[in-house]
């Protein structure tokens, strides 16, 4: 079939380039490193030269990214012999997350569908590769979420996501961990009303405990069942509401 009688744009899903500027990709990488727990509040980041060399961009591009992050209060830059870059605040504001959301051209339904295979594979790999130290780190995330269950939404979401990111690190798959990050942050930005008004923090804590217990068994069937239960609440809400039903901040 040549497709001569169809509109060429109907033959492939070309999507808008939402992130054409290199400094936004730098912002995303630094943000991901902070949200995933690699750098805590007050801890030093690599210097500008090291970041430019590692990411393969110029120092001015790194500088543009740092302007965004310092203005948002996420990163602090100090001059002098004891200066450098450090994390000023691990609570990355929504304004920065919106900049770094590369999946914004997809519908929420599509992102939710993509989340399932990514989270499942991450959890299965974690079941194969986790050490006792990894299990302890996951438990710390649950404990911190429990401690902050009455905190503001952004703080609760940070510890919620940190549990998932810890599983992602445990999987030892940088590609899957990045996809997981992009999906989670995009859903948070797009579905703020769901996390603020529908999702119950006590239920999230129970789901995290159940997921950790399943990963500890290292049994693929038990892990798959736990992930199914874990993802079902949000999937059900999206399926029942559909696009434009007050769950998507962009509608």
From TrEMBL:
InterPro entries found in the cross-reference section: GntR_C, TF_FadR/GntR_C, Tscrpt_reg_HTH_GntR, WH-like_DNA-bd_sf, WH_DNA-bd_sf
What keywords tag this UniProt record?
DNA-binding, Transcription, Transcription regulation
Q: Where is the HTH gntR-type domain?
A: 20-90
Mind telling me which residue stretches traverse the membrane in this protein?
none
Q: Which organism is it from?
A: Bauldia litoralis
This one is known as Transcriptional regulator, GntR family
Q: Which domain of life is it from?
A: Bacteria
In the record, what terms sit under GO molecular function? DNA binding; DNA-binding transcription factor activity
């Amino acid at each position: 079939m040549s497709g001569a009688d169809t509109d060429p744009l109907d033959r492939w899903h070309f999507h808008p380039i939402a992130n054409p500027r290199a400094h936004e990709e730098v912002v995303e990488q630094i943000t991901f490193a902070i949200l995933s727990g690699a750098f805590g509040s007050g801890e030093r980041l690599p210097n500008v030269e090291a970041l430019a060399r590692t990411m393969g961009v110029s120092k001015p591009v790194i500088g543009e990214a740092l302007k965004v992050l310092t203005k948002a209060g996420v990163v602090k830059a100090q001059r002098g012999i004891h200066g450098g870059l450090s994390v000023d605040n691990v609570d990355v504001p929504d304004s920065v997350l919106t900049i770094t959301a590369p999946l914004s051209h997809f519908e929420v339904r599509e992102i939710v569908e993509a989340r399932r295979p990514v989270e499942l594979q991450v959890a299965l790999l974690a079941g194969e590769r986790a050490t006792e130290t990894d299990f302890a780190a996951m438990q710390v995330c649950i404990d911190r979420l429990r401690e902050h269950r009455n905190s503001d939404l952004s703080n609760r979401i940070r510890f919620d996501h940190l549990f998932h990111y810890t599983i992602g690190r445990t999987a030892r798959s940088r590609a899957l961990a990045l996809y997981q990050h992009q999906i989670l942050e995009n859903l948070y930005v797009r579905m703020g009303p769901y996390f603020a008004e529908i999702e119950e923090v006590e239920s999230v804590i129970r789901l995290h405990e159940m997921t950790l217990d399943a990963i500890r068994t290292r049994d693929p069937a038990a892990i798959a069942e736990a992930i199914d239960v874990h993802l079902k609440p949000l999937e059900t809400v999206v399926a029942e509401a559909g696009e434009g039903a007050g769950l998507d901040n962009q509608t």
